[in-house]
Write a structure and sequence with these properties.
It contains 19 helices and 17 strands. By secondary structure, it is of the alpha/beta class. The strands form four sheets. It has a seven-stranded mixed sheet, with helices on both faces. Strands 4-5-6-1-7 form a five-stranded parallel sheet, covered by helices on one side. Helix 9 crosses helix 15 and helix 12 crosses helix 15. It is globular, with a radius of gyration of 22 Å.
């Protein structure tokens, strides 16, 4: 297999388990993040042009060539107009004629199929019958998600995590990809020295995590891919979902959103450059959220504190997309420390979200800020019992004042507080007392 075409996806283990339990499994995430490749690679290799070698899980280890049951799924894409029109014309008949196991790609383009799939599953409920992929979040469309409630398990696939990029060169290592989050909610971080990332960190931010962009050899060509991605895919998908006519606004709105990434969401500021009403811009933002391009990070609340800011934060779904929409490369981002801080926070937030997607424990993400401007960039709740905080700095040093927000979070969380970190581009992991640590950013994906 050509090495450039494959990256290991740690979420595959969850996909395999879901197919053993549920008749319908939906893999959803933004276009071009690897949903189709994962589904075909794992369960329909005959549709791939580059061979039948593949990775699978054996305990905590990714390994090549282990036999997997039921790798004979039929693949149908609704980006194909004939398949799409046929399914829309006769949803019941289309589903009735499907083979035993099938992958239905880009299912959001034929919402008429959800009711037909429900009836088919109710007629014969067997695990692993249907793998669906979707580039729109059906959880935000109640009529669709409710039609398969109790019959469908959802797997979120993100763009590539830094851990997946690192794992590609070490496929034989026994590594579950959860080391950083395990340490954050477990025993903490031992004292350790490492090298600064420096310019390499900025390169990672600008490159982002979309596989087709990462296959391009220069940052300029990667940025061109992201800009074309907005034109070719996002605008088309928004047109499919909405009757809004001003599609030329989308690239400019995304650029405005990218300039606000990692800041408190402010609809008035986003709407001010456009000759459109605030409600219209809010509809656009909601549509981009459905496409996994933007995300509003909710505030963390506690009964112990009453003076908390309750506004969400805005994050672009990938730092590479944000950089491209702002027209910044490695050199210009290094020169703009304020923007670097914003994109770095989004980069770390998305990396942790990607790691959490394959972790055994359920994790929810928030931010923390009070009316005295004490803040924590990322708050993670593991279940209902543990809370951890992560503050992100682009600097190479850390001091006591950087822990101000984390100490307030610790007081508010009480016994639920696990650890608080300041992630920075430095060399030393060390404790700062009472479950607080300074940790180099590279350890987010390099912790064994």
């Amino acid at each position: 297999m050509p090495e450039s075409l494959f990256y290991p996806r740690y979420v595959e283990r969850r996909l395999e388990e879901a197919l053993e339990d549920s008749p319908v499994v939906l893999i959803h995430g933004p276009r071009q993040c690897g949903k189709t490749t994962l589904a075909q690679f794992a369960y329909a290799p005959k549709y791939l042009k580059w061979g039948d070698d593949y990775l699978t899980w054996e305990g905590n280890r990714l390994t090549w060539g282990v036999s997997r049951k039921h790798r004979d799924y039929t693949y149908i894409s609704f980006d194909d107009a004939v398949a799409r029109d046929g399914a829309r014309a006769d949803p019941m008949g289309f589903v009735a004629d499907l083979p035993e196991r099938v992958i239905l790609d880009e299912i959001q383009r034929v919402p008429e199929l959800f009711e037909a799939l429900k009836m088919e599953v109710d007629r014969r409920r067997a695990p692993g019958r249907f793998i669906l992929t979707g580039s729109s979040n059906v959880l935000l469309i109640p009529t669709l998600s409710e039609s398969l409630a109790g019959r469908m398990q959802i797997i979120r696939l993100h763009p590539l995590a830094q851990q997946e990029l690192a794992a590609r060169s070490a496929l034989s290592d026994s590594y579950s990809g959860t080391g950083f989050l395990d340490a954050l909610f477990g025993d903490g971080f031992e004292v350790r020295q490492t090298e600064r990332l420096g310019e390499q960190l900025i390169n990672r931010i600008v490159a982002g995590g979309f596989p087709p962009a990462l296959m391009r050899p220069t940052s300029r060509r990667q940025a061109e891919w992201y800009r074309n991605y907005v034109e070719a895919h996002i605008q088309r998908d928004v047109r499919d979902m909405s009757h809004i006519r001003s599609f030329d606004v989308l690239p400019r709105l995304l650029s405005a959103a990218a300039s606000q990434t990692a800041r408190l969401f402010n609809l008035s500021d986003l709407a001010s450059p456009f000759h459109l009403s605030r409600p219209t811009i809010d509809v656009y933002i909601s549509l981009l959220e459905r496409l996994f391009i933007l995300e509003r990070l909710p505030p963390w609340h506690s009964n112990r504190l009453s003076r908390l800011v309750k506004s969400p934060k805005l994050h672009v779904g990938d730092s590479g997309l944000a950089a491209a929409m702002l027209g910044v490369g490695t050199a210009s981002l290094a020169a703009d420390r304020a923007l670097l801080g914003q994109l770095l926070e989004t980069f770390v937030f998305q990396e942790l979200r990607r790691q959490a997607s394959w972790h055994e424990a359920p994790m929810a993400f928030y931010h923390f800020r009070d009316r005295d401007d004490a803040e924590v960039d990322i708050v993670i709740e593991r279940g209902t019992r543990s809370v951890a905080g992560v503050e992100v700095k682009a600097a190479a040093t850390v001091n006591q004042t950087d822990f101000r927000g984390l100490r307030k979070l610790a007081k508010a969380a009480g016994e639920r507080f696990a650890h608080g970190l300041v992630l920075y581009d430095g060399e030393t992991s060390t404790g700062f007392g009472d479950r607080l640590y300074a940790v180099p950013i590279r350890r987010v994906w390099e912790t064994p």
